[in-house]
Amino acid sequence: MSSISKILDHNKAFVEQSRYQEFQTTKYPDKKIVILTCMDTRLLELLPKAMGLRNGDAKIIKNAGAVISHPFGSIMRSILVAIYELKAEEVCVIGHHGCGMIGLQSSSILEKAKQNGTDENLIDTLTNAGIDLDKWLTGFPCVEESVSNSVRLIKNHPLSPNHIPVHGMIIHPETGKLDLVIDGYNSTNLPESGKRGCS
């Protein structure tokens, strides 16, 4: 049986047995927070539990590394929608130790893409069209610096309201311990780009 078949079978029973009722809430985050975090599987349940969050408490946006790669991309748009339309009053960027984006090189992904049937001419065409695949597919050397960069981008975005605190944290993916990198209540503590130390 395929993964999707198993999911659909489980879902049928889930709905028929009304197990959804304990998760019912509104579209507005009860704790008025929007979180940008990594898509790492270890954080799926650990992060909300480590933060004391229940279903409906927060808007959670996930991507590889909790990185905002473009100031006018879908991640930043989602954060702005959460603030202006869904009543979020704080933003929290949460990276994690042992992230797969640390040290990731574009060459590794591009080589695997070729091994899976992507034509090298297509890669050349994208590069010649001005798409910087190396930058787009490269990770970061330091999670602390990456979190700081995302916080800075959100805080300094031209459409971000000045009064919204933007926090930066790092979670340990095994213990759930949270370390505060940037206290959004203290707007004077934003480090300059590249100045945050790596651990």
Helix fraction, binned, reads: 25-40%
In CATH, the topology of the largest domain is named Beta-carbonic Anhydrase, Chain A
* Strand percent estimate: 15-25%
Average pLDDT metric:
93
In CATH terms, the superfamily of the largest domain is: Carbonic anhydrase
N-to-C terminal Cα separation, in Å?
44 Å
Oligomeric status: single chain
Q: Count up the helices.
A: 7
What is the total number of structural domains? 2
Q: What is the secondary structure topology, with strand pairs?
A:
Blueprint: H1 3-16, E1 33-38, H2 43-51, E2 58-63, H3 74-84, E3 90-96, H4 106-115, H5 120-128, H6 133-137, H7 143-156, E4 166-171, E5 178-182
Parallel strand pairs: 1-2, 1-3, 3-4
Antiparallel strand pairs: 4-5
Describe the structure.
This protein is an alpha/beta fold and 199 residues long. The chain folds into two domains: 27-102 and 141-189, Beta-carbonic Anhydrase, Chain A; 105-138, no CATH class. It has seven helices and five strands. It has helices at residues 3-16, 43-51, 74-84, 106-115, 120-128, 133-137, 143-156, and strands at 33-38, 58-63, 90-96, 166-171, 178-182. A five-stranded mixed sheet has the order 2-1-3-4-5, with helices on both faces. Strand 4 and strand 5 form a beta hairpin. The longest helix is centred in the N-terminal third of the chain and has 14 residues, at 3-16.
